[in-house]
Amino acid sequence: xxxxxxxxxxxxxxxxxxxxxxxxxxxxxxxxxxxxxxxxxxxxxxxxxxxxxxxxxxxxxxxxxxxxxxxxxxxxxxxxxxxxxxxxxxxxxxxxxxxxxxxxxxxxxxxxx
Amino acid sequence: xxxxxxxxxxxxxxxxxxxxxxxxxxxxxxxxxxxxxxxxxxxxxxxxxxxxxxxxxxxxxxxxxxxxxxxxxxxxxxxxxxxxxxxxxxxxxxxxxxxxxxxxxxxxxxxxxxxxx
Lengths: 113, 117
Hints:
The complex is a heterodimer.
Chain A: E1 4-6, E2 11-14, E3 19-25, E4 32-38, E5 44-50, E6 55-57, E7 60-65, E8 70-75, E9 84-93, E10 99-103, E11 107-112
Parallel strand pairs in A: 2-11
Antiparallel strand pairs in A: 1-3, 3-8, 4-5, 4-9, 6-7, 7-8, 9-10, 9-11
Chain B: E1 4-7, E2 10-13, E3 19-25, E4 30-38, E5 45-51, E6 57-58, E7 67-73, E8 76-81, E9 90-98, E10 106-108, E11 112-116
């Protein structure tokens, strides 16, 4: 089983639609959680961190359920510029001060005009 | 925000040759740099973690003699793919963590696309 699993999509939605992505992680000791977006042939860029209480940044809302080891991202009023691959990322704390990011394989979103 | 550069951005080489990729933190000092590899439609996979002045720590399944990592300064890490083969063709991305940062953020380079013929 992969450590971070995502619905691969692709999701093709019209402009203005609301779309939700899900992610599950297997390591119950994981400490921090993030959503990154990656455009085609580009590096991943941090979209937002995910907090236990849930958090919102404009049209983006992230939720974390530690008991279910489940993370979600909701995009409201989607724009053409939201088209990208969304990566669910988990940070694990290893021995000493070492920290490591583990990436999901991503969910591809295409917003259609 | 912090900037990480990679050079080259893309490279095409013949099978059997070695390719060196540079990762630089431009406006901060990086105590730790990470090297990832991403195959098409797959996730980023951590290859190794390098700390300035010490040997890199490789992930399971990554051959340290094939993927040589040197982190000689706080602003530069290099990854050399030795005797490259077509199966090494991939998108190689580095990231850097700022020395003394309280946020523990990793800043990603733009990636290097390697094609081995």
